[in-house]
UniProtKB/TrEMBL annotation:
Residues 17-198 form the Metallo-beta-lactamase domain. One of its GO terms (biological process) is negative regulation of glucose mediated signaling pathway. InterPro entries: Metallo-B-lactamas, Pdiesterase2, RibonucZ/Hydroxyglut_hydro. SMART domains: Lactamase_B. One of its GO terms (molecular function) is 3',5'-cyclic-AMP phosphodiesterase activity. This is cAMP phosphodiesterases class-II:metallo-beta-lactamase superfamily. The lineage of its organism: Bacteria, Pseudomonadati, Pseudomonadota, Betaproteobacteria, Nitrosomonadales. Pfam families: Lactamase_B_2 (PF12706).
Length: 254
């Protein structure tokens, strides 16, 4: 299995792209602005979209993508999320006011998009691959995702703050290889991090202390312009875990 990072920044500007990951060529994990760099042909091959939560930086390109490729496809794109997240997307995005309801066009019986509700711990099997929502704690309903190739696993926390349930789940993954975890704000902005339920380097270090399995750790969602400062503080405070900077177009094979 291969996962390519299409976007991993906490904002836009220049080369910065917001959160999106392409698993193989048919699965999208979140749909931030990084999706816009894919060709039309690549976009049309995506059959499954897994959404962590409803914030704009994680969903911005999903409505545009579906609109762009719908006429080239013979089956609907499946949008996976928890019931709470799907309700937000239905009421506030695909509502005919912000964007068309692609779950009802061109016909309700043959739509361009369909919704699939998932819940924490519920494994979605796609061939030999599985994707499982995992606990996250954010300002809106949210999950992370555990991606298992059958040989090894990658965990993406999504947006989250401190919580034990996430680590209880992660510590049960026997074939864990990669952990991608957010750290949005620097130590100087830890009050904003706490208020918005994100991690900062000091809190990241405390959270990583709960990890009981070996893994390559990558830090994502850094605010543009503060990335060097945040990574310097991460290295100072969580150095024993050797977290690495996640970069755009990075590829994970597992």
């Amino acid at each position: 299995m291969q996962v390519r990072i299409l976007g991993c920044s906490g904002g836009i500007g220049g080369d910065f792209r917001t959160t999106a990951m392409l698993a193989d060529d048919d699965i999208l994990i979140d749909g931030g602005t990084g999706v816009g760099d894919l060709s039309l042909e690549a976009l049309a091959r995506i059959d499954h979209i897994f959404v962590t939560h409803s914030h704009l930086d994680h969903i911005a390109c999903i409505p545009l993508m579906i609109d762009s490729v719908a006429r080239y496809r013979t089956k609907p794109i499946t949008l996976y999320a928890t019931a709470a997240v799907l309700r937000i997307l239905q009421e506030h995005v695909f509502n005919w006011l912000v964007w068309p309801d692609f779950s009802r066009i061109p016909k309700e019986q043959t739509p361009f998009m369909r919704y699939q509700t998932v819940s924490v711990g519920q494994r979605v099997v796609l061939g030999e691959r599985s994707i499982t929502p995992i606990p996250a704690q954010h300002t809106v309903p949210a999950v992370g995702y555990h991606i298992d190739s059958g040989t090894a696993s990658l965990v993406f926390t999504g947006d989250t703050t401190s919580q034990d349930a996430l680590w209880e789940y992660i510590n049960r993954i026997d074939n864990l290889r990669y952990l991608i975890i957010e750290t949005a704000f620097s130590e100087q902005q830890q009050d904003i991090a706490v208020a918005s339920k994100h991690l900062h380097p000091g809190l990241l270090a405390k959270e990583l202390g709960k990890l009981k399995r070996p893994a390559e750790i990558y830090v994502t969602h850094l605010k543009p312009g503060d990335d060097d400062v945040i990574m310097s503080q991460v290295n100072q405070l969580a150095g024993q875990f050797v977290p690495r900077f996640l970069y755009n177009q990075q590829v994970f094979d597992f």
